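cron nightly-structures :: item 1 of 1
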Amino acid sequence: MTIEPNWPKDRIVAHIRELPIWQARPAIEPLVGGLQNPAFIVTDGEKKYVARVGFDLPHLGTLQSSVVTSMRAAAELGVSPALRYAEGCLTVIDFIDGRSFTEEDIHERETLSRIVAVLKRLHAGAKAVRDPVNFFWPFVAVRNLAHYGLETESPHKSTIPPLLEIIDRLERAVAPFTSVFAHNDLAHVNMMADRNGRIWFIDWDYGAFGHPLWDVAEMLGYALSDDELDRDAIELYLGGLSEREMTRRLHEHRAFQLVSYLRQYFFCILQEQKGSRRADDVEESMGVVFPGEEDASYSGFRKIAKERFDRLWARHGENYMAG
């Protein structure tokens, strides 16, 4: 028996408690933070773990076999906690005693430099991937979200068709590249520092091969980066660039940031219509991702994403409209 999408929280907890890996009867409590999947802190004697529930969700592009492969590879590379157990829709990893990063952390040059160093280790780790894993192309992912959104009864679906043309234009800004093993959902809350300062990446729903600069762009998009921070991050990742090459990379980078905001926007449209998370769970998670926001719901996240997209498009959109 494995967890089903319609199970209530108490049945999920009971299932986790009966897993064959525990040394004693574990204590289990909810873990707040994720906007997509429920998770729990499991205390087994003196050790702690995180049990996370996830399902194959075609409309979101997640496949649990790929998630598990990504988690194993990332753990081998030392950038993610060790995977202790996996079945169908459930994974158990070591608990990280530390804190998630905030948007403000990303603006600190020393912290950004350390994150980029871990990111480069991940991206160089293709040899650690030993089973089939997804390929993540953000433009395909966001188009799929958009088309699923058009099939819902969302009052916001009329906003989708004009954005599809913009997505096409943004995609043309990306030059040929060599794919890398990447995280592909590098929000600040998916990065942690333990009590010794070591950086970890968590939540591998979108772990896959993809573009090396997508992780950089999405991380900075969540952090509301400015031009100086964008340049610093690209230089930290790629090394010293000529001004001409930096201009080209910034053009790609902003295209990725724009489509990242659209990904968040369409994700929320779908979750408002099809999401299975309880409103109080989403509210608690929103308090972690966007502390201080009055509308702590998928609706609030949707508004944040669209506002961020609109601001960045107003500054740079004309650069993608030629041709």
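cron nightly-structures :: done
The chain has eleven helices and ten strands.
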